[in-house]
Amino acid sequence: MPRRPTIHDVARHAGVGAKTVSRVLNGERAVSESMRARVQASIRTLGYRPNSAARMLRKDLTRSIGFVCADIAEPVQAQLARAIETVARDHDSAVTVSLTDHEPDRERDAIESLTSRRVDGLILWPTGIGSRYLARLVRDLPTVCVDRPIDGVETDTVLCDNRQGVREAIELLHRRGHRRIAFVGDDPELFTQAERYDGYRRTLADHGLPVDAGIVVRGNHQVPRLRRQLAHWRAAPAPPTAILAASSVAAHAVIRAVDADDPVTVLAFDDFPLADVIRGGISVVSQNVDDIGRAAAEMLFDRLAGDQRGPNHLRIPTTMIARGNDHEHDQQRS
């Protein structure tokens, strides 16, 4: 394993003293802009990161953490940010949110911006794509991943139990008499979507039901295309009687595409605003986002307090929220 660059390596590379590098790292003003730029260029070239363990021993904490996510307008990520901020406030710390728009380059820019401000740790909703940069980052900065892990990079993680959530959804639909259950999901390369589709496939098999590729849409669920697909299904000899939308984004697309007089039942993974009133109430698999956010933040602050145990991996169970007229029938049968 190559030796980790030190502050002295940066100083030699930039042609300055170690104290100058330290001043740049600490954001002190007593450094000219040209000198600061030279040191920062050497830091990037060498891949230097301050040693977080040493900082913790010195109690050199900034009382700030970063939350890097794809889109704060998305309901789950917005709720996560609030839960993380609540825990951070209890630890007398602030949270800075940076967005990636699912792009690895923007993810790196966001993380570099936060580390340049010397945040104490990160909670990361990763793009999922591993890199040597991220491998170095998590070695030097306490990092907890939510929603999905980083491919090939070991970190603490707090994830939703995707497979079990889908199992409960299919079990509910099966109890309600549905045997032709369509699946509409996001990009199949996404970690969460792969797990949810696997849960769908396994649960159907457990009930002796085949997986019909003709009623599976993964990735391209733009509303006009999906509307044509639903019309094709409805005209088929054995149309699906229920649709499992494997994310809130997929659910919104399905709801906009389904005709008002289409009797198909829609069930969504992730709760969303107005789900309790749309189409008489849509049943959902809730991720318990507050629990995920709080657990991730507490895990990070445990690291900052000196927890040196191996990587922690926590799965938060989902909650099935049954709604609609079918729910009343379920209650009458129970």
Automatic annotation (TrEMBL):
InterPro entries: HTH_LacI (IPR000843), LacI/GalR-like_sensor (IPR046335), Lambda_DNA-bd_dom_sf (IPR010982), Peripla_BP_I (IPR028082). Residues 5-59 form the HTH lacI-type domain. Gene3D superfamilies: 3.40.50.2300, lambda repressor-like DNA-binding domains. PROSITE patterns: HTH_LACI_1 (PS00356), HTH_LACI_2 (PS50932). One of its GO terms (molecular function) is transcription cis-regulatory region binding. Keywords: DNA-binding, Transcription, Transcription regulation. Pfam families: LacI, Peripla_BP_3. The keyword Secreted does not apply. PANTHER family: HTH-TYPE TRANSCRIPTIONAL REGULATOR GALS, LACI-RELATED TRANSCRIPTIONAL REPRESSOR. This is Transcriptional regulator, LacI family. It comes from Microlunatus soli.
